[in-house]
Amino acid sequence: VQLQASGGGLVRTGGSLRLSCAASGRTFSQTISWFRQAPGKEREFVAGRTWSGTKIVYTDSVKGRFTISADNAKNTVYLQMNRLEPEDTAVYYCTSSRTSLGTSNFYLPRNYNIWGQGTLVTVSS
Q1: Is the Cα dihedral 101, 76, 65, 112 positive or negative?
Q2: CA gap 48, 101 in Å, rounded
Q3: Alpha carbon distance 64, 73 (integer Å)
Q4: Nearest in space to 116 (alpha carbons), one of 16, 51, 23, 25
């Protein structure tokens, strides 16, 4: 599996962005998620789902603002980010796991085996 993330940019507080993650070789991917890493901070889980859609998980800080979706025909996962806040500023990474992760396991970077290159999201106040 190879992952290509895109869609980052500069936006004002309250604005929206949509990130895309195109997955090649998707046969070997069961779970796909977004993490983010702000300067000086650890990488943190944002949202994830199985390709089947049976499990969808969000971290608390983005619930109600972000939506993760998938277009299986295009092998692409999207992260629609609304009502963005300066605290959302980070490099966003999409990542894939070979297995269908249990809900509690979405949050751990070590459970993923493939990472995309990251796309920078900057939210100005």
Answers
A1: positive
A2: 10
A3: 26
A4: 23
Q: CB 11: neighbour CB atoms within 10 A?
A: 17
What is d(CA 11, CA 111) in angstroms, rounded to the nearest whole number?
Answer: 31
Both tokens of 53, joined, read 């859609």
pLDDT of residue 84: 98
Instruction: Give per-residue burial for 55-80: e unless 16+ CB within 10 Å, then b.
Output: eebbbeebeeebbbebeeeebbbbbe
pLDDT band for position 69 (cuts 50, 70, 90): very high
For residue 20, give every residue at least 6 positions away whose Cβ sits within 8 Å of its Cβ, in sequence order, or none: 5, 6, 7, 76, 77, 78
* Dist. CA 82–CA 15, nearest whole Å: 6
Confidence of residue 27 (pLDDT cuts 50, 70, 90): confident
